[in-house]
Amino acid sequence: MARGGRWNLGGQRTHGTPESMTSPNKMPDVAQDSHRKWDGIKDIAFPMIALAPALGALLIDDKWWVGSLITISWLAGLALCRFHHGAGRNRVIAAIIITLIFVFFGWRAYLHVQNNDDLIARASNLSTEILDFIGERNRDYPRTDFANQEAFRKSTDRSLEYSDVTRDLYAKRFGPRVVAITKELDKRGLHSDELSRFAPDAVNPIGIRTIGVELGALAEQLKHSKSK
């Protein structure tokens, strides 16, 4: 009997080879199912691992760490596209989409961190300006004269007039900025009852000084939360 053929029961020769010979390396169905399941797990797990550093960047306010973590995720995403078993054209398209997504979210994250730094600087500088202003005004504050009733009345009137001038100067120089930055801090979850009370109307030098102190405290609070 020649190689490559076989004989049937009727004595006739048939051509071809058994399926086991044509596919000597064919995997059993169970092994194939297991392989497909593993591929499914990899398709979910590996992208999540690659995405993890970028998700971690959401918890950090340091722009250099944010940039580094997002870059790591981007490179990991490109590596997945490079070594994935899919069609080459689809992998190139996926890599381009991944790059555009990370560029967009990376820029947004950078702007968020930059805005935090800017808010800290503005609140801190405004606090210093207000405290310097009220310090200068308090140095020239009229003293109360207790020599007699008339002297006391006149000195009190001068004090009230001086306080009114101080409040007017504060309102023109700082009022709108204080109201705006108080709202901005509130949006970031940084709230001060004293600041909210005096920001719309400082009332007197004590209120003005309170505003300066509270702004400085909130700026420090934002700075410390950023460094954690």
Q: What does this protein structure show overall?
A:
Helix 4 packs across helix 6. The chain has a two-stranded antiparallel ribbon with strand order 1-2. The protein has helices spanning 19-22, 29-57, 63-83, 88-139, 149-173, 175-187, 193-198, 205-227; strands at 5-7, 13-15. The longest helix has 52 residues, at 88-139. It starts with a strand and ends with a helix. With 228 residues, it is mainly alpha-helical. The protein has a domain at 113-227. The mean pLDDT is 75.
List the helices and strands and how they pair.
Elements: E1 5-7, E2 13-15, H1 19-22, H2 29-57, H3 63-83, H4 88-139, H5 149-173, H6 175-187, H7 193-198, H8 205-227
Antiparallel strand pairs: 1-2
Helix pairs in contact: 2-3, 3-4, 4-6, 4-8
Notable traits:
228 residues; mainly alpha; two-stranded antiparallel sheet; 8 helices
Q: Can I get a quick summary?
A:
The chain has a domain of 115 residues. It is mainly alpha-helical and 228 residues long. It has a two-stranded antiparallel ribbon with strand order 1-2.
Q: In oligomeric terms, what are we looking at?
A: single chain
Low-confidence stretches: none
Helix count from the secondary structure assignment: 8
**Quick check: average pLDDT?**
75
Number of strands: 2
Secondary-structure content class? mainly alpha
Strand order of the largest sheet: 1-2
What is the percent of helical residues?
over 70%
Q: Sum up the overall morphology in one term.
A: rod-shaped
Largest sheet: 2 strands, antiparallel
End-to-end separation in angstroms reads: 83 Å
Name the helix and strand elements from N-terminus to C-terminus, one letter apiece. Answer: EEHHHHHHHH
Radius of gyration: 37 Å
